[in-house]
Amino acid sequence: EKFILNGKLVDRSEGYVDVEDRGYQFGDGIYEVVRVYNGQLFTNKEHLDRLYLSAEKLSLQIPYSAEELTKQLQELVTVNQLNTGIIYMQFTRGTAPRKHQFPETSHLTFVAYTNEVERPIDHFEKGVSAILVDDIRWLRCDIKSLNLLGNVLAKQQAAEKGCYEAIQHRGEIVTEGSSSNIFIVKNNELLTHPATNLILKGITRQVILKICDEHQIAYREETFTIDDLLHADEVFMSSTTSEVTPIIQVDQQKIGNGTPGALTRQIQKYFDQEIEKQTKQ
Ligand code: PMP
Known about the structure:
The chain is α+β, with helices and mostly antiparallel strands. The protein is built from 8 helices and 15 strands. The strands form 2 sheets. Strands 7, 8, 9, 10, 11, 12, 13, 14 and 15 form a 9-stranded mixed beta sheet that branches. The longest helix is centred in the last third of the chain and has 18 residues, at about 260-280. The site of 4'-deoxy-4'-aminopyridoxal-5'-phosphate has 14 residues, from helix 6 and strand 13.
């Protein structure tokens, strides 16, 4: 198994990152996760666009063009013979003596590796449970940064309660999952938090909204409350690895009749078609 270290393909056992890497010490870096279906990258352009945006927001200069990066990632998938899975990539501000402010000189550290990850078909069909947790994160959740402690603590609480996702809220307003965006359905209309500084603008979320445009499904990018969530007809989460996963229970309370909703199932079908369209061989 190979991974990419600073633009070179090396053995997993060979490469290492310095102990004074700023990603390791400060979480000073950014990342992306790209889905691979059929050995092909799904919505790669959208992920790289977001990567460059995150970089800009943190004054990181990625030393590769999108074309160069794509070539490297495709090569990685090929040498690792990945069929269904993910590519994880991250850029940090590099290695320098430990001082909080940016170092005067440093080269970004770039790492990318692949993992086999099946599509969670069982979850798609049966749905999952979630809990509500306070959103204790910082105010730049729009940046896909390595600082994920708030998300980690939220997901851990869900895991301890035997739940799959933690749905975060600031006061009464639902923001997003610990590693997903949240949609609710009320009267055949979708609602999801607007893409502000309080959430990550998910690529899966964007694909879903495009699907809605194409199929005349009504939606609004507007905030909704905990009460709206608990009394919604349907709830689902979206992410690169979880795609469109129905949430059938929140804090022990059933959503609707406690099974995946009809509109959610329909959007899953359209999402499948999108995957087929982009990754057929
Ligand atoms: N919000 C957060 C906090 C996430 O970590 C993720 C998953 N990366 C998402 C939303 C969903 O984003 P995407 O659809 O691009 O995977």
